[in-house]
Amino acid sequence: VLSVLLITSIVYADSFKVVSLGNDLTQEQKQSMLDHFGVQGEDEAQVIVVTNEEERQYLEGIAPISKIGNRAISCAYVEPSGEGSGLDVSTSNLTWATKEMIASAMTTAGIKDATVVAAAPFPVSGTAALTGIMKAFEQATGKKLNIDAKDAANREMITTGELGEEFGQDNAIQFMNEIKKEVVQNKAKTPDDIRAIIEKIAKHYD
Q1: pLDDT value at position 181?
Q2: Taking a C-beta distance cutoff of 8 angstroms, is the pair 131, 59 a contact?
Q3: Alpha-carbon distances of 29 from 49, 74, 87, rounded to whole Å
Q4: Strands 75-80 and 18-22, sheet pairing
Q5: How would residue 15 be classed by pLDDT, with cut points 50, 70 and 90?
Q6: Each residue of 116-163: pLDDT tens digit?
Q7: Pick from 25, 52, 17: which is nearest to 120 by CA?
Q8: Edge to edge, what strands does the sheet with 75-80 contain?
Q9: pTM of the shown model
C-alpha cells in the first residue's frame, strides 16, 4: 500500500493526446465521442479501443458484475501535461463515477498531471472509465503504470463509490483522501497501522 501511495509523478516531454473508445459503440457513436472530445481524426490524437474483456480484467472481483456489464461503452480523452500542472478532470453521461472519484483514483495510479475527459454517448455507470484513462495515459506517454498502483486505483474508485451510495459522494471522497494523506504523512507500513488510521478517520466521520 505504501509503495502505491508514494508513487511520484513523472514528466513526459514527448507525450501526445490519446482517445480511448468503448469497443461496443457503433461507428456513429464513436464519431459522436470524437466530436465531443474535439478530435477531428487520428492526425489530432491517437485512437485506441477498450474492450469489455479488459474492463473485467481490472474490475472482476472488485466491482459487482451488474456495474461492469457486458459491453464496453465509456470513453476517455487523455492529454498529459507538464509537471506541477495537476489534474483537470471532467465527465459527461457518467451516472456513478464522479470526476472527483476518478481524479483521486488517478492520483493513486500515479497519474498526477493531465487533462482528462471521461464520457459516454448515453448514461452509463462509468465504472470502466478508469480502465480507458489508464490505458490511454500509458499509450500517450509510452510508460507503463505500476501494476499494483493500477489495481489499488480501481479498488479505490469502487470502494469510494460504494461508500458514496451509503454516506454521500462528497463524504466518501473526503474520507478516502484523508486516509491516503495520513498513511503517507505517518509513513504507515503495516496493515495494522493503516487500519488504525482508517478507524480514527471513520470515527471522525461518524
Answers
A1: 93
A2: yes
A3: 13, 11, 27
A4: antiparallel
A5: low
A6: 999 999 999 888 888 999 999 999 999 999 999 999 999 999 999 999
A7: 25
A8: 46-50, 18-22, 75-80, 114-124, 87-94
A9: 0.83
